[in-house]
Amino acid sequence: MHDHSIARVNRRSFLEGLAGTGLGMLGFNGMVQAEATKQLVRQQKHVVVFWLAGGVSQLETWDPKPGTETGGPFRSIATSVPGVEISELLPHTAQQMHHLAVVRSLNTNENAHDRGSILMQTGQPKDPGFVYPHMGAAFSSLLRSEENKLPGYITMNGGGQASEAAFLGSLHAPVQIDGDRGPSNLQPPEGMTAAKDLRRRQLRDRVSHRFAAARRQTDTEIYDASYEKAAALVDRRDIFDLDQVPGSERERYGDSQFGKHCLMVRRLLEHGVPFARIRHKHYDSHSENFNFHIEQLGEFDRPFATFISDLDERGLLDHTLIVCMAEFGRTPKINPRCGRDHWGTAWSVALGGCGIQRGAVVGSTIANGTEVKDREISSGHLFHTYYRAVGLDPSEEFYHNGRPFHRTDPKAAPIEELLV
Amino acid sequence: MTCRIARRLWGSAVAGLLLVTAVSAALEPPPPRLPEKVEPERTGAVDVGLAVDFARREAAKAAEAARLLAAEAQEANRKAAPADKAVADAKTVETAARQALDEVMAALKAATATKEAGDKQLADTLRILDEAIKAAQKASADLAALIEQKGVAEKKVQTSAKQTAQAEATAKPLLAAQAAAKSAVAEAEKRSVAAQERLSVLQGSELRADPREIRLVRTFKHHRPLISCRIDSAGEFVYAGVQDKDLQRWDLVSGSRTPLTGHQSWVRRFEIHDNNDLLVTGAYEGRLIWWNPQETAPKPQRIVEAHQGFVRGVSISPDAEFVATGGNDNVVRIWSVADATLVRELPGHESHVYNVKFDPAGKYLVSGDLMGVVKQWEYGTWNHVRDLDAGLLHKYDEGFRAHCGGTRGMDFSPEGDFLVVAGIGEVTNAFAMIGVPTALVFDMATGERLSVLKPAENFKGSLWSVSVHPSGRFLVCTGGSGSGRLWFWRFDEEKSFFDFKLPGVGYDVDFHPDGLRLAVALFDKTLRLYDLGPKPDVPPEEPAENK
């Protein structure tokens, strides 16, 4: 079924955008100018990625195989969706499954951390000839409001690199937040009043414009973009001050850094940030997979479930696409160290929120989980689905240095049964 | 109309020709006429002159008439000229038509001949076709008959195959049983001989277990990796937890296997009381189960939902009054053996409790956790006596932000004087389990660590279990990483005195009550029984005086 609300940015509107910006090199930037995309921005769609770095095990999360040789020691538990079971390591998430959907038949055929990471965050295999923007930068360029000066792409707990923005430029590069108190140096220096700060900024702007006049625009915009984003964060530093959040609310997210990051991201969404990635690390369990998954998922489960229910209660979930994924899954076969190794052949991701059919389960794996049984899905399928879910046309082409590129893998298609 | 005119002209032209011919004949001068001989006696007399005159007049008249006719004929000829031309043209056309007709006739003749030949060929073909159809019909009929016969034959084959399969199915277990029985008899005879030999050797030797004499004497195979094992005090059965729900029990003599069903996850820890009348198992689903090991097919006697998460430690007090357990909820619990009720909760651990163990003298209980904290509790009062520092067996990996290690194996010396705690030390990569297999020996009188035991060889991996020899003279640990080992230490030496390579990673080890054999639970889906006693095939040492 075709979604008529899709903002189709055709070549003409793309070129109009191109003309409007006056830039020689344009890609997704041009699309942002299109009226249809502006409408989307006004609707303020968001995307939040939970990135379980290292490769969370699908058997300990979304595709449990209890009782089988590969199943491990954990049981599966019922969820809020009748007939759908997930691992007992996610009891709180199980109660939010009616807001989520699971793809159990992902085959990315990629077992290396870096290539898997690029594949899952760009929808394209690593290409030595061209760098695709990561989805954070891409959605920032498509969903960020011109009026909102906050960064379009925020990544919590490391992993953010300026190169993720690729040709989209530094405006859409990730702003990385580590620790549990937000970005450092948010507080102005002692004696710096708001009025003084304003004068300081105005002075900086004048100097900056003089500086920019003598240089290529692409060189100077990096500085401007960085400064603009930093200034916006300083202006809205209250977002990161969790002491302003009622204690009962903080309690629900827990005291872990991950829980605080979830709460911060909720507040960032409420302030119009279109894309956030929350990294929860250390799932690369080549030994003692079960012990490490108890630890890691024990920390992940409750804040994640709270985040989902919180967004739903606040009416944000309908506008926010949730993706919970990693660079690959883990081997069904248990190794002699009680570990699981890398496995991109048959694994799972979870989605939810905006545009997603809640409670859906797509595809399956065979009894021992080593192969996809039906409805094989690639990262390309997922990217088509992400774009459709937020109301964008996934098949759009864009041009970079005169060469056409597809926004998503043209051989793939949206997972229709996963879309509302 | 044109044809009618042409016919009329044609008729006129013919009449004209006849007339001209007649007129021409009339206008020619008569030939001289000779007087005919008159025969007076037979005719009347006539006037010759008159007659000639008449004749002249008539001739003139005739000539005139001829002249008129000639003129008419000339006129007719003039008029008939186009008709003549038309006639000539028509004749030409007719000639051409006739010629064409002739050609057509010739072609017709040829075509007729061809048709006749074709007809003949067609007739021949039809005749052949007819014959072929008849042959095909006959062949079809034959084929149908054969297919029917084939169906019948196949049915017979199926029926007979089914009967064969049934017969084979009936025979298979019998044959298998026969073969198994034969094999078992052979095996039993072999084992009997070996046992007799072993008995004779043991009877004639100074009994001493020597790890250097280690040799495999029995392998019990399963379809899942093994994670725990214990031999009962009667030396009759070996029990093993596997990466599955059932506990497995093998008869050490017959090799017969009995599954003990009741848990929902892996049984990593269990203990059999020395009286051999109580088996308590703890599994990763959080349950404890009481069993009577003396039953032929033991069934759960009591089931207790004991811990939130894994049960990792189970120990029965020597007086068989209490069961101590520990698990992932960081709590140690004491249960009444008699009725499986909770006697006491022992809080204090701040991480998963990996192990619990009563000392053989029945004075203490110790519990160890992931962080390497070993707590000593007084039996009966359950008061906390002190903590033993096994922190060398724990590492918080800053890179991976993960805790690694734990008190993976614990055992007391026979008198309870020393406690050995086994695990992994010097971890450099938690997720790849890169560290040094390490065991710590504690003096239970002081709580001090006496020694740090490491393999003599350079090996990276973990210890998963420890068992102290009943003599108290040495201990064995098993573990590994990619490959497995048994490491043997003496209490007074920090480096292992003997390292033995296993065919897989060992997860648990237990000495047979005879002190000469040990069982190892391996990841390679086998439970292996090794003998450390004197070798039957080695001739007894010659008396010293004969040397």
What does it look like?
The complex is a heterodimer of chains A (420) and B (547). By secondary structure, chain A is of the alpha/beta class. Chain A has helices at 11-21, 28-32, 35-43, 91-94, 113-122, 135-143, 194-213, 217-235, 247-253, 257-270, 289-313, 379-389; strands at residues 46-52, 76-78, 85-87, 100-106, 153-156, 175-177, 275-280, 320-325, 329-330, 342-343, 347-353, 361-362, 364-365, 372-374, 397-400, 403-406. Chain A has an eight-stranded mixed beta sheet, with helices on both faces. Chain A is globular. Chain B has two helices and 30 strands. Chain B has helices spanning 2-27, 48-203; strands at residues 215-221, 226-231, 237-242, 247-251, 257-260, 267-272, 279-283, 287-291, 302-305, 311-316, 322-327, 332-336, 342-346, 353-358, 364-369, 373-378, 384-389, 394-397, 402-405, 409-412, 418-429, 434-443, 449-453, 462-468, 474-480, 484-490, 498-502, 506-511, 517-522, 526-531. In chain B, the strands form eight sheets. Chain B has a four-stranded antiparallel beta sheet, with no helix packed on it. In chain B, helix 1 runs antiparallel to helix 2 (48-203). Chain B starts with a helix and ends in a 16-residue tail after the last strand. The interface between A and B is medium-sized, with 23 and 33 residues.
